[in-house]
Amino acid sequence: MSANPLAPAWLAQPADPNAIVPGVWSAGVRREESGELSIAGVPVGELAAQYGTPLYVIDEADARGRARRIRESFDREFAAVGSSARVYYAGKAFLTTEVARWMIADGLNVDVCSGGELAVALAAGVDASRLGLHGNNKSLSEIDRAVEVGVGAIVLDSLIEIERVADAATRHGRVQAVRLRINSGVHASTHEYLATAREDQKFGIALADAEATVAAIRSHESLRFLGLHSHIGSQIFESDGFAEAARRLFDVHARLLEAGPVPELNLGGGFGIAYTSADVALPLDEIAGRLARIVAAAAAEHGVPVPVVAVEPGRAIMGPAGSTLYEVGTIKPVEVGNDGGTAIRTYVSIDGGMSDNIRPALYGADYTARIASRRSDAEPALVRVVGKHCESGDIVVRDDYLPADVVPGDLLAVAATGAYCWSLASNYNYLGRPPVVAVLDGRARLLVRRETEDDLLRRDTGYTSPGQERS
After folding, report:
1. Quick check: is 75 in a domain?
2. Residues 314, 409: one domain?
3. Catalytic residue annotation
C-alpha cells in the first residue's frame, strides 16, 4: 500500500501500525500476545476500567531510572574534568508530591517556578535547601516565603528582584544564595515559543549588563552570589547551542572571578526527547559528557577552575515515562484535495483533547498514537487524532498511521506525554482534568484523582449543591 500523499515528509508509513517504537514509548510498554498494550505489567484495559479515560499513566521505573541515570552521568562526567554537578528536576514539567519525593530519593534537587510549585515540594517533605526558585515575576509573597523557609537558591531574573530578595533576606536574618539569569543571545534550534535566550523576550538580564548586575548583588550583605544561569530553550537535540552559550558565559564568568567567588555555572535544561520515530534524542550519558567537555574547554581557554555545574532537566526525565489513554468516539474519513487529486485523511475523535494536551495547538508538537486495546491486521491509514473541544485546532496527534479498522470504543494510547501535558491541562469546555496513575511491577496507584463536575462547580459562587439552600 502506497503512503498517503497528505502525510508530512518526516512520517514514514509503518510496515506494522501496531509496532511500539523503542525510545518513543516508556521502557515498560509492551504489546502482549493478546494484542493489548500493558504498561509496567498492567494491562491498559484494567487501567481504563478502574480509572476511566482520559488517563495519564506514569511508568515509575522508567521515570526514576532516567532521573538516576542523569544524576549518575553528570556526577561521573564532571568528576572526570575535576569538578562536580548539581542536578535539579524541573518541576514545571510535571510535579506532584509523590514525584517530588522520587526525585529527592534518587539524589536530585527540585526546581520550582511559583508559590504553588513551592507549596507542593514543601508538602512532599522536601528540605527547602534542596530547592531552587525560578520565575520572571516572583511576587513579594513568593519571595518572602522562599527566603523564610530556606530555599537553597533563588534565580534573579531582573534588577528589581535584587532589592526584593535582599530585603526579604534581611527581614528573616538570612544570607540568601542567588543565581543571576543571563540572556546569552544564543538561538536554540527549537520552536520560537521554546527558545528562551533570544534578545527580544521576557527572561533574564542582557549579557552586556551582567557585570554591573552582579556588582549590585554583591553590594548586599544579605545575598550570596552563586553564579550565572542560562537556559537557551527546550526540546533541543544538539549541543552546539550549549557550547556557544557556555563560551559567552565564561567570558563574563572569568571577569567576575576577579572581584569575588563564582562557584557555579547553571546551564539550565531543555534536553530533547523522541516524540515520534523521526526524532533522534541524545542519550543521557552523552549529554552529560558533551556538556562536561564543553565547560572544561571553556574554563581552560580562560585559565579558570572548572566550576560546579548545575542543570535542570524535566522533560528528559518525565516525558518518555508518560502515556495518555483515551477512548475513541467517532471516526470521520475526510476527502482532501492534493496536487490536483484527492486523498483521505481519517479523523479519529477521542474523549479528551487540548484540555489535557495543549502542546500540539500551542507549539505544533507532534506525537505518536497506537490502538492500545487490541492488535489489528488492517492496512495502515493516515489519521488525525482530535479532541472533543469546540476548536478546529483541537488536535492531539496531527499525523500518524493507525490500522484502518480503528472503531469507536477502541482504547488509544499516545506516547511521551509525561511532561507538559498534565501541568498545562485546563478545564476548557468544563472538562475535568484527568487523573494520574503510577504503574510499577504490575500494580497501579493513584497520584492525582480525576476532577469531577462537583469540583468544578464548587468554585462557582452561584452554585448551590443538592440539599443546600442558597444564601
Report:
1. no
2. no
3. 390
Q: What is the CATH number of the domain that holds 406?
A: 2.40.37.10
| 127 and 257 housed in the same domain | yes
Q: What Å distances lie between residue 137 and 103, 114, 115, 159, CA to CA?
A: 26, 9, 11, 11
The CA distance from 120 to 101, in Å, is 10
Number of domains the chain is built from: 2
List pLDDT tens digits, range 61-120.
999 999 999 999 999 999 999 999 999 999 999 999 999 999 999 999 999 999 999 999
Other C-beta atoms closer than 10 Å to the C-beta of 101 total 15
Instruction: For residue 345, give the nearest of 382, 392, 308 by alpha carbon.
Output: 382
Measured between alpha carbons, how far is residue 324 from residues 15, 16, 52 in Å? 24, 21, 11
Scanning the structure block, which residue is given the C-alpha cell 548586575?
213
On whether both 300 and 340 belong to a single domain, the answer is no
Domain that holds residue 119: 80-318
pLDDT of residue 196: 42
The whole-model pTM stands at 0.94
Q: What is the mean pLDDT of the chain?
A: 93
Residue 1 has pLDDT above 80, yes or no: no
The CATH number covering residue 188 comes to 3.20.20.10
Q: Higher pLDDT residue, 204 or 420?
A: 420
Residues 329, 312 share a domain? no
- 115 domain-assigned: yes
Residues 292, 326: one domain? Answer: no
DSSP readout, 329-392?
Answer: EEEEEEEEEETTEEEEEEEEEES--TTT--HHHHH-----EEE-S----SPEEEEEEE-SSS-T
| 44 and 142 assigned to the same domain | no
Question: Are 311 and 325 contained in the same domain?
Answer: no
Q: Which of 296, 318, 340 is the last residue of a domain?
A: 318
**111 in a structural domain:** yes
- Rounded CA-CA distance 93/338 in Å is 38
**Which whole number is the average pLDDT over 216-225?**
98
With 0-12 CB in 10 A as exposed, 13-18 as middle and 19+ as buried, what is 8? exposed
Which of 318, 338, 354 is the C-terminal boundary of a domain?
318
Residues in Cβ contact with 17 at an 8 Å cutoff, skipping those fewer than 6 apart? 370, 371, 376, 378, 380, 401, 402, 403
Average confidence (pLDDT) over 46-53: 98
Asked whether the predicted pLDDT for residue 191 surpasses 90, the reply is no
Whether 57 contacts 424, CB under 8 Å = no
Pair (152, 205) in one structural domain = yes
Q: What is the pLDDT of residues 391-404, one digit of tens each?
A: 999 999 999 999 99
* pLDDT given at position 190: 42
> Helices 240-257 & 210-218, crossing angle to 10 degrees?
50
Average pLDDT over residues 334-345: 87
If residue 456 lies in a helix (H) or strand (E), which one and from where to where? helix 453-458
